[in-house]
Amino acid sequence: MNPSSTLAQGPNPIPQLQLLGICKRYPSVIANDNVTMSVMPGEIHAVLGENGAGKSTLMKIIYGITKPDAGQFIWQGRQVEIHSPAAARKLGIGMVFQHFSLFETLTVAQNIALVMRQTPAQLAQRIRDVSEEYGLPVNPDRLVHSMSVGERQRVEIVRCLLLSPSLLIMDEPTSVLTPDAVLQLFEALRKLAARGCSILYISHKLDEIQALCDTATVLRAGRVAGTAIPRQESARSLAELMIGKELPVCRLTPRVAGEKRLVLQNLSLATSDPFGTRLQDINLDVCSGEIVGIAGISGNGQQELLKALSGEIRLAQRAAVQIESVPAAQLAPDQRRAAGLCFVPEERLGRGAVPELSLAENALLTAYIPANLPSSGSGMLRRGLIQNKVMAAFARQIISAFQVKCSDENAVAASLSGGNLQKFIVGRETMLKPRVMIVAQPTWGVDVGAAILIRQALIDLRDAGVAVLVISEELDELFMMCDRIAVLSAGKLSRAVPLAQTSINQIGVWMSGDFTGEVEHGQI
Amino acid sequence: MARFEARPSPSRLMMLGSPLIAALAMLLTSTILFYALGQQPLHAFYVYFIEPASTSYGIGELLLKATPLTLCGVGLAIGFRANVFNIGADGQLTMGAIAGGCVALYFQDTQSYWVLALMLLAGIAAGMMWAAIPALLRTRFNTSEILVSLMLVYVAYLTLSYLVHGPLRDPNGFNFPQSRMFGQYAMLPLLFEGLRTNLAFPISLVVVAGAWFFCSRTFAGYRMKVAGMAPAAASYAGFSDSANIWAALLISGGLAGLAGVGEVAGPIGQLQASVSPGYGFAAIIVAYVGRLQPVGVLLASLLMSLLYIGGESAQIELQLPSAITSLFQGLLLFYLLAADFFIHYRFKPRFTGATP
C-alpha cells in the first residue's frame, strides 16, 4: 500500500484536535480515564482497543453525543465546547457510526437530507456522484429497512463524505466491505487526508491500520495504554499492546471430513421484498468435521439463505434443505433444532437474545428443545413448566465455559457488551451439542480476545465431528478457520473450494459476481 | 439548551413504584382542583376516597366493581405482553353476558346450581368465540386485531339490544327492553349478608393467581412474553406466531366473557339493553396501570373502582360534575405515562460542554 499518503505536520504544527484529560464515568464503569491525545491536520490516526476499552465513548464525546465529566477540547488551537452533534458538524467533524443511526422507514436520500440543507430530490444526484467517486454503490431511492448491514454502512459513509468534513471519525468502517472495496475506501480516505482532512480511524483490524494509519493511540480499560507508529510495529505487538497480554492463537489442524450432514439441493427462493435478493439454485454440502465458509457482502442473499436454513422461511421443495439426509425445508425452526441444527444469527439483540430478559431466561430461548440436551434430559421444561434451577445452572455453565463477563446469570442481555453477548449466544448454541452448526458473522464488532475464543469454539466443534457453516463478510476470518470456502453473490453460490486451492484475491473476484475459474456450476 | 437524555439503566424499583408516584401526583393536582371548585380539599378527599371505603357496604361495592375490571384487565394484560392488542373486551363481555343470560332464561325452572355452572361456561365460551374472530382474521389475513375487535364491540352491543327489544323481552315487563329476572339458581351466591359482593370476586382472585402462575412459570407464558419483547427472537426460537395470537385472544376473550356473566348473574340479575358501563375499555387503563402484571392489575382495578364509586359520591354530596371521574382517570394515566417517561429519560437543564 501507499505509505506516502500522509502527514501535513511539517508546514502546519497546530493540531486539528487536541484532547486534554478527558474523563467519563458511568455508574458502573469508568469509560474514559484522563485521555489525552492530538490529531494533526491530514493525519490518519488509529484508535485501537478491545471492546469496552472506551473507544466508542471517546468518539461520542468528540462528536458531542456524550458529555464528558472533565477535560478540554482544543480545536485548531482554540478551546471549544462541543454541545451536540450539530455543533460538532458545524466545527467540521463528521462521524460514521458502528451502530447505524438511520431511520428505517425513510429512503437513503431522505435520511441524508436530515443533516443537509437540501431536499432529497436535490441530493439524489450528489449521492450518486459521491458513491461513484468512492466506489461505494448506493441507490438514493431505496428504503433503509430493506437494506443489509453492509449496505447501511455505505450510506453512513457517503453521508459523511457529502459534508466534506475536516475531521472524519470512522468507527469500524471496513468490517462489511470486500477487499477490493476496502482498497477503494482507503484510496478515498487518503485523498481526503491529502486535502488536509484528519481521520480518526477506529478498528480492530491490525493489518488495515498498518496499511492506512500514520499514528495509533491504543486504549485499554479507558486509559491511553500507549501510542505507536503502526508501520513500525508488527500486528502481533500492536495486539498485545491492546489486550495487555500475550495473544492466544487458534489452531486448525488438518482433518478428514466425514459424512454429509447438511445438504442444500437446488435451493431457490423468490423474495417478496422488492429490495430482497432472490436465491437461485444453491447447492452445497457440509460434512461432519469440517468448517465451510460462505463469503460475500451482506445483501447478496445472506439474510434469505440463513432464514431458509434456520426455518424462519420455509420452502416448497422439501429436499432443498436436508439435515442428516432428512428433508427439512418445510420443518419449523424448533423441528430443525430437534433434528440437530443450531444457529447463531447475525443480530444478537432482538433475535439471538431478548434484550430485556436475563441471561438465564435467554438460555431457555433455544435450550428448551429436549433432544438437544441429552445430558440433563429434557430438564428445562417439565409438563410445560419452566424449571428455573435447571435453566439458571445451564446459563452459569455457559458463562463460565465461555468467559462471559457479566454480574451473574440474572444480568439482563442488553447490559452485556456486544462481544460478551456473542460469546453467550455462541456458548448456548455450542453447549446444545449440535450435529450441524450455522453461524452468521461470528465476530462482527467483537474484540480480538473474544473473536479468538469464538473461533476456537467453532474449531473445537469441527474437531468433535460437527458440520459447521460460517457466513461471514470478513475474509481474514474465513481464511483463518475454514476447510472449504464458497462465495454468495447476487443470490448465487459458487462451488465450495478447499482453502489450499484458492486465495483471498480469487475469492475477492468471485465476490463481485464473476465466478471465473469455475469448471462446473454447483456441487463438486 | 435543555434536553432529555436516555438513562443508561432504568431503575427497576421505580418501574414498580411509578403507579404509586402517579397516584400521589394525581392527589396533589386534585387538591388544587378542589380549591378552584370551592371545596375544602381535605373534605373532598374524604368524600371521594375515604367515605366510599369506610363502611362494609362501601367495601362490598368496591370489590363488586373491581371484579369485572380485574377479570378483563388480567386477560388484556396477558395479551398486551405478547403485543396482541385486544381492544374489544367490552364486546366479549357483552357476548358472555348474552350467552350466560340465554342459559339462565332457558333453564328458568331448573332448581340446581348446575345452571350457574353452565352459565359461567357458556359466558367464557361466548367471549372466546367473539375474540376468535379477530384471531382468525389476524392469523389468516394479517388483519389488525385492534380494529376488528373494536368494531365487534358495537356488533355485540347491537346484538344485545336486539335480543332485549325482541326475542328475550320480558312478556310481563311493560315493554321495557329487558329480560325476565333470573331465577335463584342462576344467580351468583352472595358472600356476606347485606353486601352485594358475590362469588365472582373470589373467582377473580383465583384468576389472578392462575395468571401470575401462567406468566411466570409456564413455557406458554414465556413464549408470549418473548413474542411481545422481541418478535424476531420468537421466530428464531421457533415459537409459533399464530399460537401466541390465538392464546392471547382466547384468554382475554374468555375472561371478559366470564366478567359478563358475573355482571348479569350478579348485580344486574337480568339482561338489559346495556350490561357494562365500559368495563372492557377501563380495563385497558387498568392493565397498564397494573404494569401488565396480574397482581398489579388487581390493585389497579381496586383503585379504578374507587375512582368510579368516589366519583358518584362526589356528585351526590359535593354537587361536583360527573366529569370528575373521567378527569381523575385521565390524570392518573397522564401521570403514569409521565413517570414512565422519566424512568427511561432524565432532564438535562443545560447541556454544558467540556469545562475544567
Calculate the mean pLDDT score of chain A and round it. 84
Shape of chain B: globular
The second-level CATH architecture of the largest domain in chain A is 3-Layer(aba) Sandwich
- Bin the helical content of chain A: 25-40%
Number of strands of chain A: 23
Please tell me the overall pLDDT of chain B.
Answer: 89
Structural features, described:
The complex is a heterodimer of chains A (about 525) and B (about 350). In chain A, the strands form five sheets. In chain A, strands 13, 16, 19, 20, 21, 22 and 23 form a seven-stranded mixed beta sheet that branches. Chain A has helices at about 55-60, 85-90, 110-115, 120-135, 150-160, 180-195, 205-210, 235-245, 300-310, 335-340, 360-365, 390-400, 420-430, 450-465, 475-480, 505-510; strands spanning about 15-25, 30-40, 45-50, 70-75, 80, 95, 165-170, 200, 215-220, 225-230, 260-270, 280-285, 290-295, 320-325, 325, 340-345, 380, 385, 435-440, 465-470, 485-490, 490-495, 495-500. Chain A contains 16 helices and 23 strands. With about 350 residues, chain B is mainly alpha-helical. Chain B has a single domain (about 40-320), classed as ABC transporter involved in vitamin B12 uptake, BtuC, CATH 1.10.3470. Helices cover about 70% and strands about 0% of the residues of chain B. Chain B has helices at about 10-35, 40-50, 55-80, 90-105, 115-140, 145-165, 200-215, 220-230, 230-235, 240-270, 280-290, 295-320, 325-345; strands at about 5, 345-350. Chain B has a two-stranded antiparallel ribbon with strand order 1-2. The model of chain B is unreliable at about 350-355 (pLDDT under 50).
